Each structure stands twice: as C-alpha cells, then as structure tokens.
Automatic annotation (TrEMBL):
The keyword Protein transport does not apply. This is Phosphopantetheine adenylyltransferase. Its EC number is 2.7.7.3. Homohexamer. ATP binds at residues 9-10, 17, 88-90, 98, 122-128. One of its GO terms (biological process) is coenzyme A biosynthetic process. Its main location: cytoplasm. Its cofactor is Mg(2+). Keywords: ATP-binding, Coenzyme A biosynthesis, Cytoplasm, Magnesium, Nucleotide-binding, Nucleotidyltransferase, Transferase. Pathway: Cofactor biosynthesis; coenzyme A biosynthesis; CoA from (R)-pantothenate: step 4/5. Reversibly transfers an adenylyl group from ATP to 4'-phosphopantetheine, yielding dephospho-CoA (dPCoA) and pyrophosphate.
Amino acid sequence: MKKAIFPGSFDPITLGHEDIINRGISLFDEIVIAIGVNAEKKYMFTLDERKKFIEETFKDEPKVTVITYEGLTIDLCHKIKADFILRGLRNPADFEFEKAIAHTNRRLSKIETVFLLTAAKTSYISSSIVRDVIRNHGEYQMLVPEAVQVKIHKL
C-alpha cells in the first residue's frame, strides 16, 4: 500500500492544495493531509477550522484523511507508516526550498518526496496571498474551496 503525507499549515487550504491532493489520489492508496502545528506562527484560522475546511472539502474521498501533528514530518511518516511525502511546486523558488527539505528528509530517513507541479490555473495561489485578500475584503472566492468560502461568509 502506498501511503503519502501531504504536510502544510493550510491557513487556509487553497484551490492549489486541492488540485495537488486530487491529482495525488490517483498515485497513492492513501493521502494523509497533515496539518503542522508551529507555536511560533500566527494563524488566521484556528487549527480546528483548518482541519474542518479540509475534511469538508474531501468528505466524499475515502483515500484522504486529515490529522494534526507537531515535530518532524519524517517522524510522523515513521509513526503512521507512510513512505512518501507529497509536495506541490508552483515556481522555481518553491523547488529550491522543497529540494533542500527533500534531500534532508531522505538523508535522515528512507522517505521519498514526490513533487507535483501545480496546475497553471492555480500556480499563482498561495495561502499568504489568500489571507491578504481576505483581510482586505477582496474577492477570495476563486482562490479557495467551498468549505472555506462558507466559513468566511459567516464571519
């Protein structure tokens, strides 16, 4: 069984994340979306809200589960017996950053990182851009899944 972890803060999940996960479903038997907890970071959405956004977005996909974690991603991989880390790449800067992490993870463990290029139609979307658009009352709806839109609409 091929199990992959897709780690991130998902603050919030974007259409770019959703695209990578949907395309990863055909490659893996299971994808565990792992929301990392970083005490140093200030989040727009609570951990529970971020988890619910993802669970709602993938409620009809049995291959996807959502968990939260602290610590090293490779330690989580060992704990839940995942052999792969799934990551999306939007641009060359993402590649350079992710490449260094992937090399480190492989050096520290036998975990392989699988990179998927984001779709052209979502390659410009990042969670930080989405947060900025939301903070400034811009039109964020075309950047995030419906579960996020519903929550923000209620605010």
